Structure formats: C-alpha cells, structure tokens
Amino acid sequence: MSLRNPRTPRSRNQTATGYPTADQEAYTRFIPSSRPAQKSRLLTYDSRLLAASVFRSDGVCPSTQQVARTLRDLTLDGYNFGDSDLNYISLSGWDHTLQNAYKFLKWRLLPRDQRAKTNLELWLEAMDFYQLQSLSIRCDSCRDSSTDLIVKLLAPKLPSLRSLSVEELDMLDFILAIPAGSLNQFTWIKPQYSEETLRLILEHHGSSLTELEWRSAETLYRPRPLLPMPILRDMGHLAPRLKALTIDLNRHNTSWPLDDMATLMKSIPNTLSNLTIYFEMASEYRRQKNDDYWDGRGENIEEFAQPLLNSTTARELARFLQEHGGQSLEQVEFFAGDWERDWGEPLQFTDWLHQRRAWIHCDMGKGKGEVLCRGNDTVVPSVDKKSCMMSNKMCVR
Predict the structure, then answer these.
(1) Maximum pairwise Cα distance, the chain
(2) Contact 14/140 with Cβ under 8 angstroms?
(3) pTM exceeds 0.85, yes or no
(4) 140 HSE (CA, 13 A, CB side)
(5) Which distant-in-sequence residues (6+ apart) come within 8 Å of 127 by Cβ?
(6) Which of 64, 70, 60 is CA-nearest to residue 44?
(7) Residues 220, 282: contact at Cβ < 8 Å?
(8) How many C-beta atoms surround the C-beta of residue 169 within 10 A?
(9) Which of 157, 162, 291, 310 is the most exposed place for a label (fewest CB within 10 A)?
C-alpha cells in the first residue's frame, strides 16, 4: 500500500508513487475512525493485494477500514507525520473563499483532544502497525518534527517489521530504535556516510540482514560519497548472513576501482549470491562544465566516465570479482547514470544526466564457467553515429 499526502504539491524531486499506474493500482478512501470529519487521507492499494486479501473465504468483502488496519506493506511518499489540519486552515485575507471557514468549523467541533493530534497520532489510532512487515519512507521535504515523532511514537509499534527502506531523511535515531536483529532487508538511499554511523547501524542490525542497499544518486556537481574502506573490509563480519548487497563505487580517474572490488570480495560472507554496483556515467570533465551554457546533450566521449560500461567491460568486471573471492556470486548487476525516479512531467530543460542510463546483468557461471552478460550499453552519440557511418549501416536510436 502506498500513501501520499495530497496536501503536499509535487515537486521535481517528488514523484507521485501514491497515484496508480495503469495496470496495478486501485483507489479507495479511508477515513480514520478517530476523526470522522477528516477525508484527505488517500490510500493506494495494489490490485493483487486486494485480490489476495480483501475478500474473505465466505466471499464477503470487509470494510476498507478493516483492510487498512491489517496492512503488511506500507509506502509513504512526501508524507509529513507531524502535520495537522490546523496548519492548512487559514481565515486571513481571501482564504475564506477556499472553504476554509467551513473546514475551520468542522475542526472546531471536534473534541478538544482530537484537534491537536498529528497525522501520525491519528494513524496510530486507526491502523494496527504491529502487523506491518515492510515500511518505505521517502520524504525530502518533511520537517524535523516528523523524525522526532516516528522515533518516539512509531518505532515501538513495529515489532513485526522485517524490511525498512528510507530515503533522504536523517533517520539514524529511528533506524536504531527498531529492535536489534529484527530486520532482514534494509535500504537507505542518499544516506549518511560517516564510518561511525554505518558501523552503528550494522552492529545493530547486521547480524540478521540478508539484503543491504546503501547508495546515492549520481549528480553533476560532485562525485558521490562512498562506503568508507574500513566498512568494506569488515562487511563480512558486520553482516555475516548477507545474500544481496547494493553499493556505489566510483572509477579511479580512467580505470575501474579494482582495488576496492578486490577488498570487498575478500570480506564478503560466503552466503552472498547477488551483488549490484552503481557506477557514475558523467566524467570529471563533464562535471566541470558550465551548465549555464546550453550546448546540447553532450556528443563527445570525453563527457562520459571511462572505461564505458557495456556488456564487454561488465563481463571482465564480473570475471574479476569471481577470481578474487566471489565464487559464491550467482548474479552481478552494474548500473550507471540517472536511475532516479522520473519527475512525472515533460520538462523544457533537462540537465546532461537526465534519463541517461546503462545497465548490465551478468549470470555467473559456476566455478570458472562462462559468464553471460546482457543489458543496455552506455550510448555515446558521436561515437555510435560515427561507427554507423563507417559501417554504412542505418542506425536507429
């Protein structure tokens, strides 16, 4: 289930995951019983979840409230836990023409103890968080009070939580408030990168983790921060049950980070079967260019980090991992470029990186068997155009 706060306007960095896609989502509205006048909560259910769990064995469909109270999976996008209706009801100036007078009257008629309750307090009354097994929170505009609230009020209500994904928030206190050894899957996108923070989290949850994702989006302003080398060396000790790991690695000038990859392979547990590595697509030359000068989408190979990520180089990297301690690996994936969620609307101007992406999936042969790689290679417009002309072929992009 996904929940997006309808009060919050969509920004270029906040896409509407709370809205349904054409093939998988259905809408329904749910009014928390503790606040009958509040109708702005919009819940989105996956149609497969509805088909599997909404209808009881006797063919009777329970109320929406019953479904919401027993949710096992929840995704929150742009939701401010600390908000309350009073923050959005104003009678100043011409605001009364926006039906705020009526909204204020409805709010004023609520019991006194209900008026000051935050979104989170209302949801704790309306939903059984004790049954929640998977929680994802993405909020690049939430206030500090939201983080404090979820640490104090939400964390104690999550004894069944097994999967946690957070993005952008300063969530360290909340992550550490989840009972140690309870999480199997943990993802932090755009996280804190201090060695102390990483070690605290992995010492708290690492013993039970089977899947770990820790990465940042590529930008044109500076190289991405990376996992500290001491953490790479201790990965097998800090997370001995890992089966899947996703991290960032950056090239060393114009060469692959083979030393970092070898260090990682020496430390991984023998349970690790899936490894995903994100590389950068833009070169340092591209990052140093002035974006205020519009020169198209970049036709020169100098603007791309080299070596380029393609099926050939990916196969070489996968073989290197295998030969330096990665015998347990079954699948390796490499990504480069813009893998942020799309902004959801047409843009008049985009930066160089927008929607440039490459990915290669490699199936590792057992022992020293053949490594098979396939995917989308890095596309360099001027190089590909030239190769097409030289081979006298028609190239379609």
Answers:
(1) 78
(2) yes
(3) no
(4) 10
(5) 68, 69, 71
(6) 64
(7) yes
(8) 20
(9) 291
How many domains is the chain built from?
2
Nearest to 147 by CA among 164, 163, 168: 168
Please check whether residues 145 and 215 belong to one and the same domain: no
Give 368: exposed, middle or buried? Use CB within 10 Å, 0-12, 13-18, 19+: exposed
The residues near 21 (Cβ < 8 Å, ≥ 6 apart) are none
Radius of gyration (Cα) for the chain, nearest Å? 24
Query: Tokens 């899957």 sit at which residue?
Result: 185
- Name the token pair of 74: 């929840």
**Is 379 found in the same domain as 355?**
yes
| Residues making up the chain, counted from first to last | 397
**Same domain? 187 vs 61:** no
189-245 pLDDT, tens digit per residue, is: 988 778 899 999 999 999 999 999 999 999 888 888 899 999 999 999 999 999 999
Q: Is residue 78 part of a domain?
A: yes
Alpha carbon of residue 234 to chain centroid: 25
SS3 readout for 30-81: CCCCCCCCCCCCEEEEEHHHHHHHCCCCCCCCCCHHHHHHCCCEEEEECCCC
328 backbone φψ class: left, alpha, beta (φ>0; ψ -120 to 50): alpha
Domain hosting 166: range is: 1-83+118-179
